[in-house]
């Protein structure tokens, strides 16, 4: 992705601020024009005021110079303010769009980029582009304008000395091209290392307890140090190479001054009034050199910003593989249901299917549970219902309508999802429980908390429902976090409840009470439960047993004890011998 793509992005996001950009251009033009009047006025003071001994002329011209300086200062102040303001607004708009676009991604796109990389692109990369925009709005206009007008003025003032400017510009361009060719390949590597640092920091902070439990702080520190040192060394190397630009430009700058003086003095024997012209030309030449110096600063920032713009555009240009309808096609059944017909699923690039030929119907008022060994595909199956992934083949229907025919808001409104690991957001208990229904009243909130068995620990807190929840819910226990997550789903009053092993952090007593309280709430809804414990799903109307992605058993608890070997083995591993024998006898009574 080249510079023109970056500029397309700039044009798109600068459009709302067009009038501010135009005002900025006017302020820059005022600054440049007034600044370039000063050398000519100084030449007039030398040639006519000092040489002619006209003190009044010196005072008059000096006052005019002060006026021009004041106007140039106003122009500089306005242009700097507007460039910073527009640059900040640009970054805000890009960040908003990028974040909104990421929210539309399916889990597949999130995994492809990685969470750490998306964080870096939303923060560091946008900052790099913002700096380029701010610089471009000021320097990219001021420098060429100053350079062009200064060269014209220099030619008018002292045409015999213009070769000095051409020589200086040639040297600066050559130096810049050489330096850029050396450092440009490193900019992309720097951003990749920034991604890796973000990844390591995020991974270590979220897994801090595990790291400490295994006494592996030193190992993780070494891993972070290696990447951090590599990042630092690369930045230092780039900075050292780019720092060579300053002494080289300074050498050119001083060389221009010396050449102007030497050439001007050699011409004074022809005309003593040439002294003023020489001084004016020297200032114009310095203005030209300074303009090219500013342009070289842009050449440093733009390549790095272009790498960042490419990374931003990669995210912006990525379309989610899951496409939603603008409006739901058809009228969903009044009675909620979930139906899988011969569903297969495999992850992108994977050789093996995770799910094979899955078929079942989950009806309103009934609980359908999924059990199986680790890696059997239970959570993957559940994740297909809210379309976190799309099935590779087969058909999934929600309330009689295919998933692909739903509008996203319409589908999500019908689903109450509780993930395997309870997720809470920074805020309060109230804001977390009412996350899906912020307009609901306290009655809904307290009922949801009661059903989820969260009322007792909430009432023990000083501020009760207004108690603070830290980011990720780190200031509450795992069981409390799960109960609040369950309360959040209950408060939504959805058509379909999805519990992805959501009772695992609860003790047996709390688990039983919660399921008892949950039954009346879900009597008109479909309840899907992924569980590891037989006790959690024992009373489910339908239990689907999975093994290596296939359905190997389907029925209620007692039916499966009779006809499904894998389910029987799971039950035997979790129950004592006496309990298992009692269950088998209960089964025989049922069959009789």
How does this structure look, described?
Helix content is 65%, strand content 10%. With 592 residues, the protein is α/β, with parallel strands linked by helices. The strands form three sheets. It has a six-stranded mixed beta sheet, with helices on both faces.
**Unreliable runs:** 588-592
Spatial arrangement of strands, main beta sheet? 6-9-10-3-11-12
| Percentage of residues in strands | 5-15%
Count of distinct strands: 12
Mean pLDDT: 79
Residues in helices, as a percent range: 55-70%
Give the CA-based shape. Answer: elongated
Structural class: alpha/beta
How big is the Rg? 36 Å
With helices defined by DSSP (H or I, 4 residues minimum), what is the helix count?
Answer: 21
The biggest beta sheet, please? 6 strands, mixed
Distance, first to last CA: 74 Å
Task: Give the helices and strands, then pairings.
Blueprint: H1 3-14, H2 18-50, H3 55-103, H4 107-113, H5 115-157, H6 162-206, H7 208-213, H8 217-243, H9 245-267, H10 274-317, E1 337-345, E2 355-363, E3 367-372, H11 378-384, E4 393-398, E5 401-402, H12 408-413, E6 415-418, E7 427-428, H13 429-433, H14 442-451, H15 455-459, E8 468-469, H16 478-492, E9 496-500, H17 508-521, E10 526-530, H18 534-537, E11 542-547, E12 550-555, H19 557-563, H20 565-574, H21 577-591
Parallel strand pairs: 3-10, 3-11, 6-9, 9-10
Antiparallel strand pairs: 1-2, 1-4, 4-5, 7-8, 11-12
Helix pairs in contact: 1-10, 2-3, 2-5, 2-10, 3-5, 5-6, 5-10, 6-8, 6-9, 6-10, 9-10, 14-16, 19-20, 19-21
């Amino acid at each position: 992705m080249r510079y023109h793509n970056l500029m397309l992005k700039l044009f798109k996001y600068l459009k709302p601020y067009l009038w501010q950009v135009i005002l900025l251009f006017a302020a820059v033009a005022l600054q440049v024009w007034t600044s370039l009047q000063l050398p000519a006025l100084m030449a007039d003071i030398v040639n006519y005021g000092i040489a002619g001994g006209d003190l009044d002329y010196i005072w008059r011209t000096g006052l005019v110079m002060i006026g021009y300086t004041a106007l140039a200062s106003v122009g500089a102040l306005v242009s700097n303010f507007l460039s910073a303001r527009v640059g900040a607004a640009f970054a805000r708009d890009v960040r908003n769009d990028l974040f909104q676009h990421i929210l539309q991604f399916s889990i597949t796109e999130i995994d492809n980029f990685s969470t750490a990389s998306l964080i870096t692109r939303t923060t560091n990369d946008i900052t790099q582009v913002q700096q380029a925009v701010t610089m471009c709005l000021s320097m990219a206009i001021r420098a060429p304008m100053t350079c062009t007008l200064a060269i014209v003025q220099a030619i008018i003032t002292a045409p015999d000395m213009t070769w000095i400017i051409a020589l200086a510009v040639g040297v600066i361009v050559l130096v810049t091209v050489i330096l850029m060719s050396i450092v440009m390949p490193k900019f992309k590597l720097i951003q990749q290392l920034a991604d890796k640092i973000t990844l390591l920091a995020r991974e270590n902070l979220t897994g801090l307890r595990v790291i400490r439990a295994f006494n592996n702080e030193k190992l993780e520190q070494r891993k972070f140090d290696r990447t951090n040192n590599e990042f630092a060394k690369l930045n230092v190397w780039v900075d050292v190479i780019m720092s060579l630009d300053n002494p080289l430009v300074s050498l050119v700058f001083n060389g221009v001054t010396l050449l102007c003086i030497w050439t001007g003095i050699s011409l004074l024997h022809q005309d003593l009034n040439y002294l003023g012209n020489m001084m004016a030309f020297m200032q114009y030449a310095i203005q030209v050199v300074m303009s090219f110096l500013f342009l070289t600063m842009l050449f440093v920032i733009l390549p790095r910003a272009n790498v960042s713009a490419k990374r931003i555009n990669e995210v912006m240009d990525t379309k989610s593989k899951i496409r939603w309808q603008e409006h739901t096609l058809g009228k969903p059944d009044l009675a909620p249901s979930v139906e899988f017909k011969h569903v297969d699923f495999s992850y992108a690039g994977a050789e093996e299917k995770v799910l094979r030929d899955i078929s079942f119907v989950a009806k309103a008022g009934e609980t359908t549970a999924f059990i199986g060994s680790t890696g059997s595909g239970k959570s993957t199956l559940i994740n297909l219902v809210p379309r976190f992934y799309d099935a590779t083949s087969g058909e999934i229907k929600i309330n009689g309508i295919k998933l692909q025919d739903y509008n996203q808001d319409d589908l999500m409104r019908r689903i109450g999802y509780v993930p395997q690991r309870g997720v809470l957001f920074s805020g309060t208990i109230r804001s977390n429980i009412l996350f899906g229904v912020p307009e609901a009243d306290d009655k809904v909130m307290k009922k949801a908390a009661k059903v989820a068995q969260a009322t007792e620990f909430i009432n023990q807190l000083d501020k009760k429902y207004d108690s603070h929840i830290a980011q990720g819910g780190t200031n509450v226990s795992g069981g409390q976090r799960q109960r609040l997550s369950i309360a959040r789903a209950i408060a939504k009053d959805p058509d379909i409840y999805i519990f992805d092993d959501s009772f695992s952090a609860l003790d047996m007593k709390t688990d039983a009470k919660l399921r008892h309280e949950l039954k009346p709430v879900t009597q008109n809804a479909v309840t899907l439960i992924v569980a590891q414990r037989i006790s959690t799903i024992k009373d489910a109307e339908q239990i689907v047993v999975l093994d290596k992605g296939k359905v190997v058993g389907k029925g209620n608890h007692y039916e499966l004890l009779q006809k499904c070997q894998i389910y029987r083995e799971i039950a035997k591993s979790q129950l004592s011998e006496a309990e298992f024998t009692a269950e088998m006898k209960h089964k025989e009574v049922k069959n009789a």
